[in-house]
Design goal:
Layout lengths: L3 E5 L4 H12 L3 E6 L2 H11 L2 E4 L5 H13 L5 E4 L15 H33 L2 E6 L12 H20 L5 E8 L2 E2 L3 H5 L4 H7 L7 E2 H13 L8 E4 L4 E3 L2 E2 L8
Length: 256
Amino acid sequence: MTRRAVVTGASSGIGEAAARALRARGWDVVGVARRADRLAVLEAETGVVAHAADLTDGDAVAALAARLDETGGVDALVHVAGGARGSDRIEAGDPEDWRWMFEANVLSAQRLVASLLPAIRRAADVSGHADLLFVTSTAAQTAYPGGGGYNAAKAGEAMLVHALRQELNGEPLRVIEIAPGMVRTEEFSLNRFGGDHVAADKLYEGVEAPLVAADVADVIAYALDAPGHVNLDLVTMRPVAQSAQHLLARGPLTTR
């Protein structure tokens, strides 16, 4: 039986890569993002069903849930949408950036769970299990200067995931967290630095083989396709050059 996943953030980066990877593995996929034009391209190329929505809008999330109920339900939520804004010290941070990060990373996750969980439960009753997967970040695990707002938002999302897993104990529902470290995508750092290409490129300067979106998508697809009794509670993944949040090798990787 073909399973159906909702993938948020599907217009670019990890979300788009996850939508493509799941389609390649035979999943039906509903791709959700704000940018309808980019979703239309993805739909034409892969067969992903496009659904344009702003997940910081409660009415938009409710409309997504209604559409899914009308068109066949959902077996898996893959929540990738979110992001960072700003790299200022806490004392200089813009409260509006912090507000957006909390809305985009934490409240969007809560809204999706509240709206989609009834359908996900129905899918589990039919197929034996269903999934809620969240892409957080190593920023949820380790603080760093200039990352306070993003650290706080992603830590909030991670705590939501941990609490949800406990609240759903006893149900055939897997709650999965994927926490990537440095991933080079076309937009994440560019958005964080307000469109400053120089600052965004400098972040990756000299780093041999940072992760790319497809690397994270492979892990997402594996987690969802694993046997139904196997739950990957937390997968922390980094490029080899990044041994810890603060320890990043710049230059060729060589043995000593």
